[in-house]
Write a structure and sequence with these properties.
It is built from nine helices and five strands. It is an alpha+beta fold.
Amino acid sequence: MSEELGPARPEPPHYLGHRDRLRERFLKSGADALPDYELLELVLFRALPRRDVKPLAKALLARFGSFAETIAAPIGRLTEVEGLGEGAALELKIIEAAAKRLAKGSIAEREVLGSWSALVDYCRTAMAFSEKESFRILFLDKRNGLIADEVQQTGTVDHTPVYPREVVKRALELSATALILAHNHPSGDPKPSGADIRVTQEIAKIASPLGILVHDHIIVGRNGHVSLKEMKLI
């Protein structure tokens, strides 16, 4: 008498093996060994545990351009990509928030001018991939330690209103003795405009008689950064 066979077990989804291999490669070789779409896959695994997320990761990069630009995109734009809901978009924004917190930690407890590369990295992480222009001020004490890091204004894709007297007033409120100004160019090109140069020089002119020094104005964009001090514009 022949033995009856039960129903065949379904094959496990193909993407499960891919996930295991990708995690193993990340652990063995680190993030630098992965292209942007695979790093995005790793982030999306948690939010979408029962899907092949490779096509979604590639769709996100096609829409936004890079890993950094993807996680910096607003939730509303992220969810316009088919297959990405608010939960998965939130995972991406958590990664962005963690990156900003990590970058800020590298300058928060030390002399800012003694960690210039960390400062530039922080400004780029915090602002370079934003879709709107914003103006940030780092207020420093007499030892060039960070007192506060504040976004004074957020504007449009190509303009942020900046009021020099308000900048200096806030510095006096915080007992700051030095400032580092920073803003982003959503166009990607960090080259300073005439308005950028004028407002920087006006802030420096108002601040100087009050014993407040403007160390620099850093402009960041997707394509790099510039320092107005290095350009001898301050």
